[in-house]
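Hi Y.,

Following your request, here is the sequence exactly as I used it, all 92 residues.
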Amino acid sequence: MTGTGPVARKAPGDLSSARWFGPADLRSFGHRSRIAQMGYGPEDWQGRPCIDDELDRRRAAWTPPAPRYERGYGWMFSRYIRQANEGWTSTS
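Below is the corresponding structure, written out as tokens. Let me know if you'd prefer a different format.
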């Protein structure tokens, strides 16, 4: 990695775009073909990070927001209602 600051910049050869599009193998050929079918040329992806690098950078910098409600229905909802994957309980 090169650069200074909170998020160091990667060298062009270390970017996902270089791993996806750079090698002369069948997998990279597939990536380049799909990108060309969508109307993008090499100048659109060479030396730029792919979306996974951008998401990783944003996930690392993300902090959860402060609670919005301190009382009332909004507070009860945010305290007791959860996403389906977190399970359900009738008592809290």
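The mean pLDDT is 77.

Thanks again,
Q.
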